[in-house]
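Hi V.,

You were right to ask for the full record rather than a summary. Here it is.
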Amino acid sequence: MSLVSFSEVTRFHGRQDVLNAVTWSIEPGERVALVGRNGAGKTTIIRLILGDEAPDSGQVTKAKGLKIGYLPQDIMSQADQKLLDLVLDTDPEYRRVESELQKTEEALKNPKEHTSEELMALAERSGQLWQRFESMGGWAREAEAKKILMGLGFGEADFQANLSRFSGGWVMRAILARILAANPDLLVLDEPTNHLDLDSLLWLEGFLKSSSSALLLVSHDRVFLNNVAQKTIELRQGRVDSYPGNYEKFLSEKARRLATESAAFANQQDRIRQMEKFIEKNRVRATTARRAQSRIKALEKMEKLKAPEGEGDNFVLNLPRGQRGPDIVAELTGVRFSYGPTLVYDDLSLILRKGDRLALLGPNGRGKSTLVKLMAGLIFPDKGTVKLGQNVDMGYFSQFQMENLSPHRTVIEELAQAAGHLTPGSLRSILGGFLFSGEDVFKKVSVLSGGEKTRLVLAKIMMAAPNLLILDEPTNHLDIPGRQMLEDALEAYEGALVLISHDRHFINNLCDQVGIIEKGTLTVYPGNFDDYQRIWRGQEDLSGQKSPSPLDNPEPVPAKEKKDPQDRKKAQEARKNLTAWRRPLEKRLSQTEERLAAIAERSRELETTLGDMATYQDGALVKALTKELADLAQEKSQLETVWEETATALESVAI
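Predicted structure:
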């Protein structure tokens, strides 16, 4: 019996026909990838399965007693719960039996405190509880929960930590662990790799492939889809198309189907044009009017084929070329860097040459972003030097830069700030290459999605024609067409590239060097990610050991064979010191954010005033307002650097 069945399901959102008489099902044990453009209806499908929406017509049927595990869940009420308890508390009956069993066993350890009748009753109850406990998985359930947590990057020291002590990304990992440990009949995972480093991503792939649960997966990670999915469902033009196999096989089969659809559509259009031409010529002639009328009726009865939906307009992205850079683009020598008491790098050296394409890999929180910020000059080493070569023009992307976009400007106005010398037609052509088509270019920045803002920031950076490009997680908010667009642009890019990304497809196609960051050191290997896995690490995990705990101190510390009796006391003292160090940073972050908000508000007021032609009747006023606006812009730039450094320092140490 199917786990979930859609029968002639139709769903409207406003006037949009999101699903039109859709029929499909998920079978036990199936691993299904759900793909489609943004807005195609993937979220609608998930909400219908969860029961959060109802179809306008048709029926969604679920197997009786179906257990569904869904990743995005409300976690606020669980903030004070311990990590291991969160993962195990998927079945209240299991926890109740475990608790009663422990109390019963404790009571049996003290026979002198009970009468013989009470002891007999306790022993009988203990036997019943043990039988029930074993039938529910017993202690193997806790062992499996710990195995899952460690696979997702947690350490044993984290198991008894409250959820409130973890950052948002680690909390999402905890929720994922909870869902996996529950072993539901159907897993519904919407972008499960967003908060995972490569170690944890590789582990999750293996877990899902060996799990008995059926899987409905939405992901923009093409390698992940290829490695996990057995079947691909595409949402397109309100219908569901099913393809056997993974994402790569889907693309091949889809291309074949689109070619067939295009030929059928073209043939029908030719036939329609011929019939319309005949009607136009013959409807007024008495001898042929009946035949013309016959064709009119045939046209009315004809079921018109829709024009096949391709992958968008085929824009050719012609980006400006930067000036030729030096042979050595960037050089780091003897760099030492720390956030407060936390040592990140000690004696780090790196030479980046013209044409190098370097991917930085390593567990989260180990210094990848710190390294590119050192190269970008956003932070400075405690010791050593960071030098850029002569005539190096650098382009730097991070998620934080999306906040620098002006919300009141349109997309085309924002790009014009970086390329004002170009005509509106040229700007629109470039924006088309970054997937802004038609009226999209006139959208206000304030209404753009995360992916659209990412594409706009990247367009501005690429228009500046840098010969050194540093990209920190550029694909985080991009769907598959957006990632392909960026990949195509970077393939044609001729400068040096430094990339932080968890997208293996992206790394494999763009990079010829892999830098592994581990324990405060950087080791560079030739080749892409697959080469590194095959040649340098075989098929081991990325770090060759368990992923670091999110609560670990990143400073490299030699491993000890046995724990010192004073270790616990030292750890408590260290945490106390870290807490004391964190408080002023939190205060500084809050004050910086307040001042940035005030600057943004005042800048908008000044821009409005300067936009009023009446203002220019007073030359002294215009000069004063212009100077104030320039001073605010300079202060904003300085404060953003302070915010970036402070936020990074806070992220590097969890309390």
